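pasting for ref. prot 1 ->
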Amino acid sequence: MALTDINSEDRLVQRTFAEHLEKVLSWESVYAYNAETFGPHGTLGRASERDVVLVRDLRAALTRLNPDIPESAREQAIEKLTRIDFARSLIQHNREFDGFIRGGVPVEWRDATGETRHAHARVIDFRNATGPDGKPANRFMAVRELKVQGLRVPYYNRRADLVCYVNGFPLVFIELKAVYRNIRAGFDDNLTDYLNEHSIAHAFHHNALLVVSNGDQARYGSITSQWGHFVEWKRNAEDDSARLDAEALLDGMLRKERLLDLVENFILFDDSRAGGTRKIVARNHQVLGVNRAVA
């Protein structure tokens, strides 16, 4: 949503989504608009509104998941995960960062003997385990009304309705409209603007899923999806009755284990057609069918 007045119906939908994530799915929840403080000890640890990766959370995750890798190598990983090259497109950035998130970030360092060591630094625990200290390996946090400033055009400000973070990565971007509005307006009026390289495209460099909803209906897609390829999530299990409501999508896709499964196993980049790379997220029945077959 642009930095203009936001009506109470839109805010009601936002709050409903955020409360469901917090109370039903056990995500942390933060309201950022005009409440966020900046700096390393600020609300989210962001230095400014230009930052979209929460480096404080990312650094903590790298330390937690890679205790045998020295700090210098972990800082290498942060540099690689936050690097922006203006000569590269959104999909090029997204593809590289997707590889790092799923497969680890290649780092190197010299050990005490002077020998060069190599490793892949993990940034997400896809098993979502609990560490030896009893704390979860991953941090899941939903941020409402996050201000983001563009990089190419100074002071080009936008406000994201709801961004779902895992270990500091903005993996899910949710655009919300009032319940009486057609959900396609969220795509046509907002997402297409945000994804433009001269807007806040860097907010999607690490994105896994886009969601559009009016609190009643909901659809999801990827950063390259046209509206016709945004689809519904209807079932959480193959024998469930089909549902088209937003709650079905939230419970089906943003339950922690399911989201990690989607990110790790059900996203691919397709170069087979003319017109450039497409990012494809599996449909509901494909996810359920594959997991059932594997089980």
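and prot 2 ->
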Amino acid sequence: MPTTKRNDTAEALRLALVSFDAQIAELRETRAQLATLIDQPSADSAVKVAAPRKRRLSAEVRAKISATAKARWAKERRAKAKTQKPKKAAKKTQSEAKTSKTPVATAKAKKSPAKKETEKKRGR
């Protein structure tokens, strides 16, 4: 390895990379030689073997996983509900008061019976 100035870190890194590349090339050559001894194709060959396709889960397995997950979450919800403090009654009464409001009557329902009769005579 050639010597460089101590302050020139970029040059030192460049020389280290060159050295590593030389070592990698040497190791690849050694691997290829060993692979030929055991009749194994080298990793650098142009013909690449396709990676095996991932298999999809069957509907049966997906349903089983789903059921297991649902059971686990239900168990956690039950445990969480037991540890929580009960809500105050005041909040409950407020929500009930909001729901007990009467619906707003329509404009036709508010008309008096006398007006309805006059509208019928006019043909409306």
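The CA atoms of residues 32 and 42 lie 5 Å apart.
The chain has a mean pLDDT of 76.
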